[in-house]
Amino acid sequence: MQNEDQKAAGHSLLDDAQGYLFGTAMCAFALVMLRTLGLVTGQTAGLAILISYVTGWPFGWVFFVVNLPFYWFAYRRMGRAFVMRTFVNVALISAFAELFPTLVAFERIDPLFGAVLFGLMTGAGLLAIFRHGGSLGGIGILALYFQDATGVKAGYSQLAFDAVLFAIAAFILPLPLVLYSLVGAVVVNLVIAINHRRDRYIAM
């Protein structure tokens, strides 16, 4: 079933495809910068980055596997079509995150600038994915499921997860890198909070 944004915009399959390709490419490229700087972010992407730092496993594969358990929650709450869209986006991010470092390398990035640019690019990518009825799965879906079961607002669950994730990161990464990472995460959330509003998204 299409969500309200899709119905309002009348997105075709081609529209959705380009939206997903743009969104996942932006997010994956931003993650290349983030990993080059040795920073981390929130949600399942942050968890996958930390695991890849500690183990040396490829981020793309870790991100893909970390998301697998959440598809059941997505199916129960949002249906098969949403699960399929989420699976496609996660698979694209995983593939792009491994492909892009073979195509581009950064000689120098100021960490503060890189963190802010990561936030802006990731926010733009997520907006494209959201507006075409997709998601990147993970903690957001589990938080919604938990909200239905307990009444605890999804935003609080996501915030708690990120707080624990950054606390763990503080034991793994130097403190300045954790602080730069927080800047990037704040920018992502600001971009989404300001721009992801149905009353401001008008199809022309």
From TrEMBL:
The portions of this protein that span the membrane are: 20-41, 47-74, 86-106, 112-130, 178-195
Q: Give the location in the cell.
A: Cell membrane
Q: Where is it chiefly localized?
A: membrane
Signal sequence region: none
Q: Which InterPro entries does its entry note?
A: UPF0750_membrane, YitT
Alphabetically sorted, this entry's keywords are:
Cell membrane, Membrane, Transmembrane, Transmembrane helix
Please identify the protein, giving its name as recorded: YitT family protein
Origin organism of this chain? Celeribacter arenosi
